[in-house]
Amino acid sequence: MTKVIVSGGTGFIAQHILNQLIKSNNNYNVVFTSRSKEKGDKVINLFEKPKNLSYEIVEDVAAPRAFDHVLQHHSDASVFLHTASPFHFKTTDPEILIKPAVEGTKNVFLAIEKYGKNIKKVVVTSSYASIARTDKKPTDIITEKDWNTQTTPEEIGNNPVFIYRASKSLAEQEAWSFIKNHQVNFKLSTINPVFVFGPQLFDSEVKSELNTSSEVINKIINLKPDDKIPPFKGGWIDVRDVAKAHLLAFEKNDAEGERIILYNGNFTDQTILDFINSKFPKLNLPKGDPGSDKKALESVPKVDDSKSRRILGFKYIDFDTSIDDSVKQILKAKGEL
Ligand code: NDP
């Protein structure tokens, strides 16, 4: 059995990764990391205690040599998927996000270098935020060759979104520079998704506030009829496809050494609202300016993700299915469906 380690097993994306790994026909033996025993036990129970799932505690990925014990206990592991990193827009202090992102990544590689002699593949969950700068023009075409270089204190200032974006770019740079400067026995790939939508793996994980990307949809569902529509926009992809890409990134040799953009189109809050209003009219949400998303999205640069799609070779879940599944799950949790 191939042993796969997944950092951050409590996360929105990681739970879907764990689910696909433990159910895969490839018979994976899966070890995830959790910040506490309580959270680790909860995940094991949510999955109904499968034989091929266990966990190790890593309280803080940024603590010196945070992952050494994980690789010491599982020196037979051959794959490491590093998803654990804080994702929120709630801090104006760059250290809060940049330190765990960068030190966490470095600690994974240091542990593999010292104790993970059987690790053959490492997949780091990076982000589209480490690819595109925010000042790209609509005529620009973004590919995996691009880097978000907005990482200096002058450029990020105290802007929470810029701080998160910089944390992802600096962490990914750390990963590629580590394998360049050290003799390693494994191949690295990065997964670079845009905003990730779709349902939580477990209905019981739906709380009043969700993880940052799911909260985009949750906020819209909770708008009052007279509320203004937030001017939010970006690219989107479904979480089940993001999880699948993590598996393919280590299963397919074509993915070795690649940055894999995951992108399935653009949205504004109005796009999501228009869909919800047409599908769930009884919710009595504001109307905003239906259809105005087309104009708003004209300012967004194009993405050329053809190389990533070629490597992965599967069809992504469409917008309506992704949003519909997300909305229904939230409404069910609120007792409104
Ligand atoms: P979640 O917030 O759901 O998951 C984040 C995970 O990281 C949790 O398991 C969390 O643990 C763990 N974590 C955070 N900080 C630390 C720390 N200091 N020490 C140990 N563990 C830590 O987010 P997502 O699932 O959405 O994100 C997972 C990854 O995907 C992140 O790297 C994120 O940057 C990336 N990503 C996400 C996108 C999205 O739209 N969702 C888009 C692009 C990239 P705990 O639950 O205990 O706090």
Notes on the structure:
With 337 residues, this protein is of the alpha/beta class. It has a single domain (3-198, 236-264, 303-316), classed as NAD(P)-binding Rossmann-like Domain (Rossmann fold, 3-Layer(aba) Sandwich), CATH 3.40.50. Helices cover 40% and strands 16% of the residues. The chain is built from twelve helices and twelve strands. It has helices spanning 12-23, 37-46, 68-73, 94-115, 153-156, 160-181, 212-221, 239-251, 269-279, 293-296, 306-312, 319-333; strands at residues 2-7, 28-34, 53-57, 79-82, 121-125, 141-142, 187-193, 195-197, 233-238, 259-262, 266-268, 302-303. The strands form three sheets. It has a seven-stranded parallel sheet with strand order 3-2-1-4-5-7-10, with helices on both faces. Helix 1 (12-23) links the parallel strand 1 and strand 2. The longest helix has 22 residues, at 94-115. The model has no long low-confidence stretch (mean pLDDT 97). Residues 8, 10-14, 35, 39, 58, 60-62, 83-87, 100, 125, 127, 168, 193, 195-196, 211, 213 line the site of NADPH dihydro-nicotinamide-adenine-dinucleotide phosphate.
